[in-house]
Queue: 2 jobs
Job 1
Amino acid sequence: MLRINNLVLTVTDPDTGQQTEILHGNSFELAQGEALGLVGESGSGKSMTLKCVLGIEPPGARVTGAIELDGTDMLTASGEALRKIRANDLALIAQNPHGALNPVLPVERFLIEGMSDARSKDKKTARVLAADLLRQVGIDDTERVLRSYPHQLSGGLLQRVVIAGAISGDPKLLLADEPTTALDVTTQAEVVAILDEKRREHGLSMVFVTHDLDLAAAVCDRLAVMKDGEIVEIGTPEEIRDHPETEYTRNLMAARPMLYPKGHPAAFLSENKEAQA
Ligand SMILES: Nc1ncnc2c1ncn2[C@@H]1O[C@H](COP(=O)(O)OP(=O)(O)O)[C@@H](O)[C@H]1O
Ligand SMILES: [Mg+2]
């Protein structure tokens, strides 16, 4: 459903005019319903790759290659076609959920505004639907949360709200950029589990960006390892774990910042290490 071919991103320094190539000709494909992890160190180009898909690369940047979503090349599509694709087919879940919500509006408004027109016509119905959305992401005290302003809620709760909002728009492709990095480990596990569950329920495709190899292995069907703006290998979590092709991937495996305890959803890589030892 998503096909990225030879993606090159070049940015221009607005002061000096100097051009820097940030992404060096990356290609990958994503099947319907598949989750692909983009994994790599900070600065390896993960977020920039998502920005290219969303069409929000820095001003003055040049993107070449192809980014096709269900056959439409987003790099050559017309403004109107693009606007439609971005509004209807893509949903971004970013690291900081506060960025996704208007700070002066209650959660209720965020959820209702994200719904398609037909459903939000009648205010009462829309509110019932909003409460239902919250229940779907494991939030039970829906009245309180609907009435709350973003700053009154914890990051974990708010990220669930963002996931609920993303799903309600019925997108084709979820783009998640370090969606749990700002959360503590326990909340992280819960939010990842919800994201994973909802994605599967709705049959959505997802590109999941993280510096955390374990987390990516837990939720993704395949992993693409990024280094300095380049995808250096792509494989299933098992392939990456058992036969990493590059030194860089081996180092990433060895230098994982946090080892998840057995039983944690992200303990996949660690558990095999134990088994092999
Ligand atoms: N707004 C920007 N303008 C120019 N270069 C940028 C900008 N944002 C990030 N970069 C550069 O692009 C590269 C990739 O960054 P990014 O995609 O954010 O990395 P990651 O998400 O993997 O941590 C880095 O070298 C970074 O310095
Ligand atoms: Mg990033």
Job 2
Amino acid sequence: MRLACLAALLEAGACGSSTAPSSSIPPTIPAPLHGEVTDPSGDAAVDARVPVSPDLVHATADVSAGTVTFVIQFVPGTFNPQTTRVSVVLDTDRDGTTGIRQGNGLGADYGLDFVAGSSLAAVTRADPAGCAAGQSCFNAVGSVPITMIANGMQGSVRLSMLGNGDGRFNFQMRHTCS
Ligand SMILES: [Ca+2]
Ligand SMILES: [Ca+2]
């Protein structure tokens, strides 16, 4: 996946913030998980193709009932519902040696490509063997709808589309331009 204009790099683990389940919750039902990352405002790289570069400032990932929901927000006035794209890579097994190695050691097993103009986010699965052979590193496994929100967008993906993990994963997010 070519990253046209790198404006922000966020990373976080969607785990750790939940408290121990109370005795009224059966232990077989995982507590909801929440991950949150922030990025400085005013650091968006200038891109000549768009009048205003989207400036990513905040993203959350919430896992509940077998679904992970990403909410991505920009500095007011910088999100463009026609051209803004956000690429997310997910290390769903939290193992840097599996998937596609990222610069910081994260081993991306799945990807999400939020394309605001299409109102869809493509879901992709890493193909380390194909990638090593010079072919595609991520292959499409489906897509999910994007919902526009104030100054951003959100989308939800069933964990069954992401290898049926337990909902604990590390992720990185990059703003790109379409
Ligand atoms: Ca930013
Ligand atoms: Ca991995």
